[in-house]
Write a structure and sequence with these properties.
There is one protein chain. This protein is of the alpha/beta class. It contains twelve helices and 13 strands. The strands form three sheets. Strands 1, 2, 3, 4, 5, 6, 12 and 13 form an eight-stranded mixed beta sheet that branches. Helix 6 links the parallel strand 1 and strand 2. Helix 4 runs antiparallel to helix 11 and helix 5 runs parallel beside helix 6. The longest helix has 23 residues. The protein is globular and about 60 Å long. The structure holds N,N-dimethyl-L-histidine (AVI). The site of N,N-dimethyl-L-histidine (AVI) has 12 residues, from helix 11 and strand 11.
């Protein structure tokens, strides 16, 4: 019986839930309800995000595309001047449509590196492994599906070469500034002195331009947020009525925080697994932060977290920056 008791104690019900179920229930039971934006990216979420990136108001993709298309040769020459050999690890690789320009230039310099794309979406990784060889036949690709640091640890066991880590697309902006500092410090701890990080920051600009990017006129961002409720309905046997929630985006130029919420349009009860979640009319679910930075703030972040800022690569409008840091 003592074994039985120990077993019972060690496996309370919450521990048996997949992380997604556990995090969703925790967020919906919190005093200020929230959901984690990393869960936006199921297959349908990936497709909606592709449409966001193609919509006219969502400028970051075009800005970073311009940087990669026009400055990849410069960036790769700089990387090559700082290290002889390297492997490339990309955090949140997505469809790699931007990093592909840099990978191409890096291949011109050194054929022997391996590209390790890491993404939370299994679908994204299998697409990359399938399609990258068509675009860059000489590239060695080893995709990893999972959380950034778990997969980085995996990369360290696979390769001892110096690392060039890519964190593009303003993915870092989806952490709060405090989480970002923690993330950069943690990343620094995974890296060796001399390793490099190329990281994107969406820069502060006219607040209306930012707000419009997260509240597009076609309602694609709205759909993107609501899709997480659809995912919860499907995967957690829930009964969210999507017509009873609205999308609301805010941008505070003081702090640089762009946040999105879903707003309950009435008093309502939603069943999620075997729990009932109560919503008051106009109660919100905090969905996502997309933090905007100044160049100075980005440099300060580098120094605070154990990196040296080496160079900034901006688009012509100066709306977005990819910064190269060295550990
Ligand atoms: C993935 N990430 C950088 C996007 C952003 O701009 O924060 C996600 C996004 N959310 C709404 N629109 C785009």
């Amino acid at each position: 019986t003592s074994v039985m008791n120990a077993f019972t104690v060690l496996t309370p019900k919450q521990d048996q839930l997949p992380a997604f179920h556990r995090d969703v229930l925790q967020g919906l039971n919190a005093k200020d309800k929230y959901l984690d934006a990393k869960y936006f990216y199921d297959d349908n979420g990936d497709r909606i995000f592709q449409r966001i990136m193609a919509c006219p108001e969502y400028y970051p993709t075009n800005c970073e595309m311009e940087i990669m298309q026009e400055q990849s040769a410069k960036i790769s020459a700089l990387i090559a001047s700082l290290t002889e050999t390297f492997d490339v690890v990309e955090l949140g690789a997505g469809d790699a449509t931007k990093s592909i320009y840099l990978l191409k230039e890096l291949l011109n310099i050194d054929h022997s590196f391996t590209y390790y794309p890491i993404d939370i979406s299994a679908n994204v990784i299998s697409q990359l492994e399938q399609h990258l060889p068509e675009r860059l036949p000489a590239l060695q690709v080893h995709g990893l599906h999972g959380e950034y640091f778990e997969m980085l640890r995996m990369v360290q066991t696979l390769s001892a070469r110096p690392k060039v880590v890519l964190c593009m697309g303003g993915n870092i902006g989806n952490f709060t500034p405090m989480e970002t500092r923690k993330f950069c410090r943690q990343l620094r701890n995974y890296l060796q002195a001399g390793d490099m990080l190329l990281t994107g920051f969406d820069l502060k600009k006219h607040p209306q331009i930012i707000l419009n990017a997260y509240n597009d006129s076609e309602g694609i961002t709205r759909e993107f947020n609501l899709n997480l409720l659809t995912r919860i309905n499907r995967e957690m046997d829930a009964d969210f009525d999507l017509t009873k929630f609205d999308h609301y985006a805010t941008y505070d130029p003081g702090t640089g925080a762009c946040k999105s919420y879903l707003v309950s349009l009435e008093d309502q009860q939603v069943r999620v697994l075997d729990e009932v979640i109560e919503f008051k009319m106009h109660e919100t679910i905090y969905m996502e932060i997309s933090q905007k930075y100044s160049l100075d703030e980005s440099e300060k972040l580098a120094v605070q977290t154990g990196f040296e800022p080496v160079a900034h690569f901006m688009d012509k409008k100066k709306w977005f920056v990819d910064s190269l840091w060295q550990a």
